Amino acid sequence: METRKFYHLPVLLMILGPLILFGPMLIRGEALFWGTPLLQFIPWRQYAFQVLGQGHLPLWNPLLGMGAPLLANYQSALLYPPNFLLLLTGPVWGHGLLVLLHLVWAGIGMVVFTRHLGLRSLAQSVSGLAFSLSGYLIARGGFLSINAAAAWLPWILLAIDRLVKCVEDESRSREVKATLWLSVAFALQWLAGHAQTAWYTLVVACVWGCWRTVRSRGWQGLKRVSVFLFGAWVIAFGLAAVQLLPTAEYLLNSHRATMLDPQFVMTYSFWPWRLLGLILPDLFGNPALGNYWGYGNYWEDAIYIGILPCLLAFNAIRRGLREKDHSSLVRFLVGLSLVVFIFALGKNTPIFPLLFRYVPTFNLFQAPTRWNLILVFSLALLAGIGAETWRAPTGRALYWTRLGTVGVAVVGFAAWLGSLFIEGVEPSFVRAFTVASFWLFVAGILTLRLPERLSWRWASLVGLVVLADLVFAGIGLNPSIPLRVFRGDSALGDSVRDEHRVYMPSDVEYELKFERTHQFDTFNPDIDWRLIRDMGLPNTTVLDAIPSANNFDPISPDRFVVWLELIEELPREDRLELLALMDVGWLAVVDTSSGLSVRYEAVPDAERIRLIPEAVVMSSAEEALSFMSKPDFDPMQMIVLENEVQLTLPTGGGEGDAVLHGTSDPALISVRVDTSQGAWLLLSDTWYPGWRAELDGLKTELYRADYLFRAVWIPSGEHVVEFSYRPILFIIGAALSALVWISVAWIVVRWRKIE
Length: 755
What we know:
Layout: H1 4-27, E1 30-32, H2 36-53, E2 60-61, E3 68-69, H3 86-89, H4 94-116, H5 121-132, H6 135-139, H7 144-150, H8 153-169, H9 172-191, H10 195-217, H11 220-252, H12 262-265, H13 307-320, H14 327-344, H15 351-358, H16 372-388, H17 395-421, H18 427-448, H19 456-474, E4 480-482, H20 492-495, E5 501-503, H21 506-517, H22 531-535, H23 558-569, H24 572-581, E6 584-590, E7 598-602, E8 609-612, E9 614-618, H25 621-628, E10 638-642, E11 657-661, E12 668-675, E13 679-683, E14 691-695, E15 698-700, E16 703-705, E17 709-714, E18 717-725, H26 728-754
Parallel strand pairs: 5-6, 9-10
Antiparallel strand pairs: 1-4, 2-3, 6-7, 8-13, 11-12, 12-18, 13-17, 14-15, 14-18, 16-17
Helix pairs in contact: 1-4, 1-5, 1-19, 4-5, 4-7, 4-8, 5-16, 5-19, 8-9, 8-10, 8-11, 9-11, 10-11, 11-26, 13-14, 13-16, 14-16, 17-18
């Protein structure tokens, strides 16, 4: 029986690591910013909280992409309970705190899970640190939805393992209780906002549950466990339905509704040379040091779990394949690691392309390298098993350990010394070998001095060594900036002096983002980071409430994506005409003479609402788009409808006045129209299911017009048209989630009274 000091040591270490990495940033009052925090998460959530503060639900975002779903945007994760903390802290500073808390949660989850598996405190500490401070989680700290979703992996496997144990004991009440806890864990991960991580977790959870059941009760117990697993998924779906149903609708209307392009999916396939990152994480440089030169980017292939945990994992594999202690679990984890690593290699083997073509779900997500989440988890668990069976070497093992310890010290010193006298040596090689040699030397000394009976002080020393190694590797991977960068008005507001939309073509965005501000080789390109807002890089325009036709989002409406592709291909004059139709009043162009490298040119005739005299009907969306791309098409004289509408359409004069009245609710648009002969009112906002129109308080037909936009017929006279967004699936999902959460809470309360 371990002492109380042993019992609390792992949890204290799980808290200490994230505090060292993120605490100074939070104390200085700074915020995460590099990449997705500034370009996605903070703009989304800050706008959502502003809408909530005005008494409305943040269902729609009118500031991006000519209008797009906001709550249904899965990665916005507006309904994820921990994100409610941002209401108190603010979405700028608070995201750093959320990352810290989720890393702590991931580490504690690993501690509780390994404790459940029967491992002692030293093993718990090693596994928890190796997972929560791994390169996979730390390097992706700014990718907030991945960080949040991955933190639930050990808790979900713990809940499944407890469910399997309850089924073994044949305790009906405990089976139901375990099922409910599992469903809550699944639901919270699904609400965290990263579908890829949630799907990989679901896959490994099924594999883990089946393996544990077959191992303990044989194939006969699998049927009963499967019933409870399915029940947990159904309940979890009900708990998260308020998010999942609107997101499903968005997905079905997005460019991801069909199979993605294989080149896009396999862009971030694990670069095989980065496997050396298990021992040499910065062999190819590090963007925090400004010298990364490897393939792709640093964070996608980051898999470092620490030198000592890596050695302990290999020790567990060596002993587990030869001895009985934990042999079944070790073999399972080795098999799982090999499979997911092959998946992570993506296009670098012929296996993933075959899976992409023939196996469902392999064509849904980008970046196969993210399968390495399961690899890192498995290696961290193996490291804990290795720590459990860690013994001082004897005999020949003692000889080789001594020799190896001295050898790595010599290699490290030689690497440093050689760099002083040999020209042309890659500096990142020198640093990587020197640092790895140091930690290998420390690991060797710890192994040689390993006592027969572990004390609290010795376990603390080992834990601190692992923590120091991982903290040293993770420093700088999540750069921060003062909060003032996010506050106040940007210079862009002085350039675009009206309420028309801005638009940045893809080639301009690419140059500004990847060649000027977000280079993969360094996190510090020596610029004033406020320039990003001054440039209007998507989606930073939301911070200034400047509407943009761009939308930097993994999911966008399918027709929106096709429309922008058409815009990019058209000659300049034809492009300007359709940009004006989109209410784009300002077009970004590269300007090397400007300090911003970009300037905004005015686009003539931009309007968000227009009165059009007549309409023409096309038989399909493709035909409508083709018709609009013709040089003689005049969007001021005609709108294009599709075959879903009646064949006989009214024709008017197209003359009159239309005035748009803004409201505090982004899901409500009011237009006052006065026309003498009747006209088609075209609103240049993205058409999307859930929008409806009323004419003078009575429901009227809302047409999909000009391939992407919305239109209603206005008879002669003065009228008020209201466009409102009332997504039925959100209403159904909210009702279902409320019912299921209330039911689960009632059952929990009943348990407490009975117990």
